[in-house]
Specification:
Elements (H helix, E strand, L loop, with lengths): L1 H6 L17 E5 L4 E7 L12 H9 L2 E4 L5 H15 L13 H13 L4 H4 L4 H15 L8 H8 L5 E3 L3 H9 L3 H30 L3 H12 L3 H25 L4 E6 L9 H7 L3 E4 L2
Length: about 290
């Protein structure tokens, strides 16, 4: 299910992209202060050059850099342990026993194709099985887990200049707290999309690197399919509203802040920058 990966930093994927890139960058300002908003992809091909001179200049000017969450090594270790705590089955059933027959059959097929053992998948709740299988697609594509925008920047920005909108546990809850039916639907959608996932992600990352969020939005909404309302509310819109409120406070404190969050949070009329514009702040596209 690429829509859940598109929203969460530890999970988002991207494939083949142009050699030169200029992803969208906005400024948000009031009478006496400005913040900058940059949409990221959280896992990228290792040879993708996404950083422009303008972005580097903006990063240097920022007193603080806001990320969705901490993706440093220690945080990832903690998050990995927590994901298994929340994602291991505790109902005495194997995953295969809890799925409709058609979904179970497809699960076994994809398990074999991507060399993810069924004994492992059978111990997982549907949401974690979905994420595990999508990660296998990324590995098959040869993606470098250390090439994502967030990981790259958090390695170089001093810890005292970093701030986060959410904890890792809060992000996990976005998936783990879904009902059994929602999780099963998520897994079924992931299994159905595996064959076309590379092509769709390639379209998304190309739109991102070319600085065409309108095209990115179109691909994203196409990928959502029938899950649109539930997915967009929980994974995108609700979080956008919380983050916009936080950023209003940042502007009121006159901080020079760069905001680096998933590109999916900046599409459409309920994107972060759109919400701030509606609140009366001046929004300018810089790149």
């Amino acid at each position: 299910m690429t829509k859940s990966l598109f929203a969460l930093p530890a999970l988002l994927l991207a494939l083949a992209a142009p050699a030169q890139a200029a992803p969208a960058l906005w400024s948000i300002s009031d009478e006496d202060s400005t913040i900058w908003l940059f949409g990221s992809f959280h896992l990228l091909p290792p040879d993708l050059e996404w950083r422009t001179d303008l972005f580097s200049e903006t990063l240097a000017k920022a007193d603080v850099v806001y990320f969705e969450t901490d993706v440093g090594p220690a945080a990832q270790a903690t998050l990995g342990a927590k994901s298994f705590e929340l994602g291991l089955r505790d109902d005495g059933k194997f995953l295969a026993q809890a799925l409709p027959p058609d979904v179970e059959a497809l699960l076994r097929e994809v398990s074999g194709e991507y060399a993810v053992p069924m004994p492992l998948l059978n111990t997982l709740k549907p949401w974690l099985a979905s994420i595990t299988l999508t990660a296998a697609v990324a590995q098959r594509a040869g993606l470098d887990p250390n090439s994502g925008v967030d990981i790259v920047l958090q390695r170089e920005v001093p810890a005292e200049r970093q701030a986060y909108f959410e904890t890792g546990e809060e992000q996990l809850a976005l998936l783990a707290d879904g009902s059994e039916q929602e999780q099963t639907d998520m897994l079924a959608a992931t299994l159905a999309e595996v064959g076309g996932m590379s092509k769709m992600l390639s379209k998304m990352i190309s739109a991102w690197t070319r600085g065409t969020p309108e095209n990115l939005a179109a691909y994203f909404m196409e990928d959502l399919g029938t899950d649109e309302a539930v997915v967009m509310d929980r994974l995108i819109y609700d979080r956008n509203e919380r983050w916009a409120e936080t950023l209003k406070g940042v502007l009121a404190e006159n901080k020079n802040a760069l905001v680096v969050v998933g590109a999916g949070h900046m599409i459409g009329d309920r994107g972060v920058q759109a919400l701030l514009e509606d609140a009366g702040f001046e929004v300018q596209r810089l790149q």
